[in-house]
Amino acid sequence: PKKSPISGILAAIFGASLALCGGCDRSISGPKITAAQAVASSIQWSSCRLPGVRMALRCTTIKLPTRHANPNGRTLDIHVAVAAATQPKTFDDPLYFIAGGPGQGASRVAFTALSAFERIRRHRDLVFVDVRGTGRSQPMDCKLDDDATALRDALAGELGEKELASCRALHDGRDLGAYRTQAIVDDLEAIAAKLG
Asked: Is the peptide bond between 102 and the residue preceding it cis, with omega within 30 degrees of 0?
């Protein structure tokens, strides 16, 4: 039987999330804090609700450079939500989630991860990051026709010149070259450093 492309996407998201959790540097000396403990730090946190999630989470917006090579240039806001560990003893490294899509923010799929990773959450925080241009991080949505053909064409990367020009015009003034995988990785590293 033919394998569904959705299962491949979910496997990639799961693998990326686990890789981010395992990539924490444990060689740094000094006291460590968890993402939940960072609530009391200088980061401005607030209670928030995400779609499909019954409990309130802690959310913040972290300002990051549009281009990490130019830290004094333009900035953008990245939305971060934390579901604190449910038991007092937490591991130092939270589990980070980003979503696939394209264009889907982690805040839109947090409800799925919270139930799927309930056991892991007992001992570590879950951190949901809407990567640049998605979810609550200055989304770059395009207005497409509502019919299934337009959606299929968009997902297959087969939009016409008219649709592409229309979408680009909606985001005139944005540095579209800054919305690449390397920038997302740099954002995640900066966020992890800020959370401690």
From this structure: yes
Interacting residues of 137 by C-beta distance below 8 A, sequence separation 6+: 76, 77, 78, 79, 105, 129, 130, 131
Q: Whole-number mean pLDDT of the chain?
A: 76
Give me 127's structure tokens: 């951190």
Which tens digits make up the pLDDT trace of 6-23? 434 444 444 444 444 444
Question: Using CA atoms, how far apart are residues 134 and 28, in angstroms rounded to an integer?
Answer: 32
How far apart are alpha carbons 98 and 131 in whole angstroms?
A: 7
- CB contact at 8 A, 61 and 132: no
Instruction: Find, among 142, 136, 140, the residue nearest to 176 by Cα.
Output: 140
Task: Determine the number of helices (DSSP H) and then strands (DSSP E) in the chain.
Answer: 6, 5
Q: What is the pLDDT of residues 88-146, one digit of tens each?
A: 766 888 999 999 766 788 998 898 889 899 999 999 999 999 999 888 998 887 776 65
Per-residue pLDDT, 132: 93
Distance CA 82, CA 126 (A): 6
Name the one residue in this structure whose structure tokens are 């087969």: 158
Strand residue runs (E) in the chain:
46-48, 57-65, 75-83, 95-97, 126-130
Three-class DSSP category at 63: strand
Query: Nearest 5°: phi and psi at 47?
Result: -75, 140
